[in-house]
Amino acid sequence: MLALLGTYGTWIRSLLNGTLHHLFRALHITGTLPGTASTPLKTTFTGIYWPIDYLLDVLVLFFYQAVDGSHPGTSLFGLYFATQYVPVIVSLYVDGFRAGKVSWTRK
């Protein structure tokens, strides 16, 4: 049930409210960032288009308006998201260097 709810919340709602349409239109048709007339979208980050650069292109387009400052409410929510997400990543990173018994391996 949770997998179905997550799929609905991520993909179906994005399809229904037009997010995916705008994202793929900017990625495949116009090649420009949303809200700009002529700023080209950078499509090469690593030189490996599929799947790495394509995924990075989608992430840039998805988070662009949250970090460019054109929508202050969205930028504030992005800051809230980052302050919740970064400590989790840091704690996982630091825990990876911890010496001792690893709980997820078999004996």
Written description of the protein model:
This protein has 2 domains: 2-68, no CATH class; 70-99. The protein has 107 residues and is mainly alpha-helical. The model has no long low-confidence stretch (mean pLDDT 89). Helix 2 crosses helix 3 (49-67) and helix 3 (49-67) packs across helix 4 (72-96). The protein is extended. It has helices at residues 2-16, 19-30, 49-67, 72-96.
SS class: mainly alpha
- How many separate domains make up the residues? 2
Main sheet specs: none
**SSE pattern, N- to C-terminal:** HHHH
Number of helices: 4
Helix content: 55-70%
What is the straight-line distance between the termini? 33 Å
For the residues shown, what is the average pLDDT? Answer: 89
Strand content: under 5%
Question: What is the gyration radius calculated from CA atoms?
Answer: 18 Å
- Number of extended strands: 0
Oligomer: single chain
Low-confidence stretches: none
User: What would the principal axes of the Cα set say about the shape?
Assistant: extended
For this entry, give a set of tags.
2 domains; extended; 4 helices; single chain; mainly alpha; 107 residues
Question: In summary, what is this structure?
Answer:
This protein is mainly alpha-helical. 66% of the residues lie in helices and 0% in strands.
Summarize the SSE layout with pairings.
Layout: H1 2-16, H2 19-30, H3 49-67, H4 72-96
Helix pairs in contact: 2-3, 3-4
